[in-house]
């Protein structure tokens, strides 16, 4: 019934280590261990309740036997006072039988009470151990979840800037640089083309003015 203590030690020591070595889910396994402990406590509570009931039953019978012994003694006295010695003798014989029964029941009741008290103490110890394991379980679960989160974050961070990603970024950077170079080249070509067009337009404009100036001079006879 009280294999609980052995199981508690197993949880804390060997089974917990084996669980981690086998890469089992610590959170699920700890919950399973707690359920097993709870089942042990329920079994222990049932056993303690049964023992207490037995203790109370023996106490009641012991007290009834004592009362009957006392009652028969009083009745024996009444019989003697009434002058009925035979009835007094029979009352005393029955008192002796009840007294003997009471003595036997008292011993049984005392042992039952001691057993019940011992079981109560062990049950209290079990519950105390359970509460300690529950606190430890909560701590271990929190540590396990934290470790899982850190592992996920580390894996995510390690994937950032990895060879594949870095090569992809380098390739895209080269494309952007190429696009920028092409844009600058097209702007240079356009600028060059515009300058040539402007010079030719200016030349044509200059020639038109010169022709117009020569015609005006000729008209004024100042040529």
UniProtKB/TrEMBL annotation:
Region (Disordered): 92-118, 134-173
Pfam families for the chain: PspA_IM30
Superkingdom of this protein's organism: Bacteria
Transmembrane segments: none
Positions with biased composition (Basic and acidic residues): 104-118, 135-148, 163-173
InterPro entries registered for this protein in UniProt: PspA_VIPP1
Coiled coil: none
Membership in a protein family: Belongs to the PspA/Vipp/IM30 family.
PANTHER family found in the cross-reference section: MEMBRANE-ASSOCIATED PROTEIN VIPP1, CHLOROPLASTIC, PHAGE SHOCK PROTEIN A
Name this protein carries in UniProt: PspA/IM30 family protein
Organism: Cytobacillus spartinae
């Amino acid at each position: 019934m009280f294999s609980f203590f052995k199981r508690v030690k197993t949880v804390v020591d060997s089974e917990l280590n084996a669980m981690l070595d086998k890469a089992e889910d610590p959170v699920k396994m700890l919950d399973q261990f707690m359920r097993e402990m709870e089942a042990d406590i329920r079994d222990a509570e049932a056993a303690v309740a049964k023992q207490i009931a037995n203790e109370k039953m023996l106490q009641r019978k012991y007290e009834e036997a004592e009362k009957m012994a006392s009652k028969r003694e009083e009745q024996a006295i009444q019989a003697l006072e009434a002058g009925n010695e035979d009835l007094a003798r029979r009352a005393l014989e029955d008192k002796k039988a009840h007294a003997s029964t009471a003595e036997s029941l008292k011993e049984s009741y005392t042992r039952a009470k001691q057993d019940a008290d011992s079981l109560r103490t062990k049950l209290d110890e079990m519950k105390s151990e359970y509460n300690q394991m529950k606190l430890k379980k909560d701590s271990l679960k929190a540590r396990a979840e934290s470790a899982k989160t850190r592992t996920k974050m580390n894996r995510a961070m390690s994937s950032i800037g990895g060879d594949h990603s870095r090569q992809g970024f380098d390739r895209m950077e080269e494309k952007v640089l190429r696009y920028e170079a092409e844009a600058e080249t097209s702007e240079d070509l356009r600028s060059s083309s515009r300058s040539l067009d402007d010079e030719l337009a200016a030349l044509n404009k200059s020639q038109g003015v010169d022709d117009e100036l020569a015609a005006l001079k000729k008209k004024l006879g100042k040529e």
